[in-house]
Amino acid sequence: xxxxxxxxxxxxxxTTLTLAVPFLVAxxxxxxxxxxxxxxxxxxxxxxxxxxxxxxxxxxxxxxLWVHAMRRNSPQMDAARARQLxxxxxxxxxxxxxxxxxxxxLLFGIPIGHRMLPLPLAGEQPMRIEVVGHQWWxxxxxxxxxxxxxxxxxxxxxxxVDLDVTSADVIHSFWVPRLGGKIDMIPxxxxxxxxxxxxxxxxxxxxxxxxxxxxxxxxxxxxxxxEEDFANWLQARREQQVSALPGPAGEVFAARCGQxxxxxxxxxxxxxxxxxxxxxxxxxxxxVLSNEPGALLRWLHEHQRLKPGNAMPLHDDLDPDHLSxxxxxxxxxxx
Length: 335
Ligand SMILES: [Cu+2]
Prior knowledge:
Layout: H1 2-24, H2 39-71, H3 79-116, E1 127-134, E2 137-142, E3 147-150, E4 152-156, E5 161-167, E6 172-175, E7 182-185, E8 191-195, E9 201-206, E10 219-225, H4 227-239, H5 247-255, E11 262-263, E12 267-268, E13 283-284, E14 289-290, H6 295-306, H7 320-331
Parallel strand pairs: 1-5, 4-10
Antiparallel strand pairs: 1-2, 2-3, 5-8, 6-7, 9-10, 11-12, 13-14
Helix pairs in contact: 2-3, 5-7, 6-7
Bound molecules: copper (II) ion.
């Protein structure tokens, strides 16, 4: 009895810990693939749960066999019988079981993968958006309206959206876990992924392919709107006209910032994020700072400390008053 308790205690602890794992991890939140908010993401979540259930079943069977093997008394048998039993376990456990497991998962997984493909639709055609990955920010273009934005993706609810993704430098990967699967963004190649949001709200995307030291600061703010709200946002952006910043600070912006950044009607730079609606974004630096009052000025002064290695040069040589005026003006830019 004493021996049995000694054997059970660590085993009991291990089993309890293993069973507790699913309850200890976060299955919700703006970036959880297990909290789907659209049909493609639901397919991914279903496949995940099916694979998790199957893997748990395999684990339980293997552990049960292991415990049985540890506890039983070895039967006496001749060498020929022992060889026969070993062969049976090798063929059954080493060949048949893995083959059947893989076949079962393929039978379940292939139709799911097929349903997630951006195939032609019979009814309403998907909306098309282009996304370009940069080190370390997202360029988002709406080709039908000419609208460009950065580090945020606005979508209509209840309508499939095809995203044509590529990269301007290294390999990135596009992933909005609550809305769909992920897809690589490869320089010189266009890949397409279909997403759909079933409900209005804010979701979070994240580059999911290591792309350099600031890979973690490559967050995409995804806003799903009702059809009318989305149409209003798109129209406001399309018709947006920004008045140039007057005075010396405006000249500094045109000579320095505007060479890389575009602001609708003011500058035509195309090497850095479009700033036409930067005041309306929820965050700066693709997730480095929350876009609160004063955050833009802080970003202009400290961007290389906050996000080392980003492509924006230091502004130490500029008059702090001009930087402050530029930051105040940028905060007003919204559709
Ligand atoms: Cu990355």
